[in-house]
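Please decode residue identities from the backbone states below.
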């Protein structure tokens, strides 16, 4: 399990990509997935810093940077 915030975890086997939310296509994807109830917000009211795309098509919004999540993911894989 990958820690994506305080008391928030995602199954690392289900992660397809971890990306920053700044670009227009990603913002559009977030909006579309929210409308389709395929978006999980795990930000605890903080600013979204990363978007985690799952193999199921759902996305998870996190207040942790993509770089930090990537480092945690690498450590998980090497453990």
């Amino acid at each position: 399990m990958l820690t994506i915030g305080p008391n928030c975890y995602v199954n690392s086997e289900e992660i397809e990509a971890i990306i920053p939310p700044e670009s227009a296509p990603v913002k559009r994807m977030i909006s579309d997935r929210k409308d389709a109830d395929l978006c999980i917000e795990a930000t605890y009211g903080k600013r979204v810093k990363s978007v985690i795309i799952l193999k199921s098509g759902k996305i998870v919004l996190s207040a942790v940077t993509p770089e930090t999540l990537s480092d945690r993911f690498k450590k998980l894989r090497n453990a």
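Observation: The two ends are 12 Å apart (CA to CA).
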